[in-house]
Amino acid sequence: MNRERLRELLEALRRGEVDVEDALEDLARLPFVDVPDARVDTHRALRQGLPEVVYGRGKSPEQIAAIVRALRESDQDVMVTRVEPDVAERLRPEIGACDYDPLSRLLWSGPAEVATLGRGTIVVVSAGTADAPVAAEAAQVARRFGNKVETLADVGVAGIHRLLASSEVLRAARVLIVVAGMEGALPSVVGGMVDKPVIAVPTSVGYGAAFGGIAALLGMLTSCASNVTVVNIDNGFGAAYVATLINRL
Predict the structure, then answer these.
(1) Do 154 and 36 sit in the same domain of this protein?
(2) Each residue of 178-202: pLDDT tens digit?
(3) What's the whole-number mean pLDDT along residues 103-116?
């Protein structure tokens, strides 16, 4: 259930196209549905503008399938993050038609094309090829949430000319998501080039002293660029969610 679906239901009730009992049956599904091992929030899109998203890691295929079915029965598109390829293959017979991207590990059950609701473009910038899975998660989530998205890949500070060559793309963005591991310097550089919000995503990429992304996280948190804010390590989804909210303002 989301605002548009609820508005349509109430308008149909007012016009006499839906009787009271059918409307009550639809509303009875709010605000959650109990399934084995989960209590599925079907009311979130109505409260927050974006539906519940399923975090796939740590859940069995059976648990994911039950949650997906509950959301689909509530007329919601369904996004599942961090789904490994073998789990995706086991899910297909259980949930029917869906789209799966192995790089971002994102599973989508919904329309192939999503209406654009964002006011501008979200640009996802990534430092190196090893950061690609996190950047892909951010880009795919942002697209499925109704944003126009552009990507700039492999433009890290070790070859800063690659980034500078795309300065027009950076400055045309309404929100930027910048993904980097190692020392995490890229968001500060991008932040110094643009007058838009920069959401920094540290990744767990790097040798020993990178401490699984902690070095990049701390570097981003202490950025001297005042327009940089930071999400958790490898959290491309969280960056895309916040960027979507900003892009709708």
Answers:
(1) no
(2) 999 999 999 999 999 999 999 999 9
(3) 93
Q: How much is the average pLDDT of 134-156?
A: 97
Q: What pLDDT score does 30 carry?
A: 62
CA proximity to 99, closest of 141, 133, 138, 132: 141
Residues 152 and 124 sit within 8 Å (Cβ to Cβ): yes
The domain boundary residue, chosen from 109, 138, 172: 109
Could you tell me if residue 96 is inside a domain? yes
Domain boundary pick from 60, 76, 109? 109
Quick: pLDDT tens for 5-45.
777 878 888 888 888 887 776 666 667 778 888 887 777 77
In a domain, 115, yes or no: no
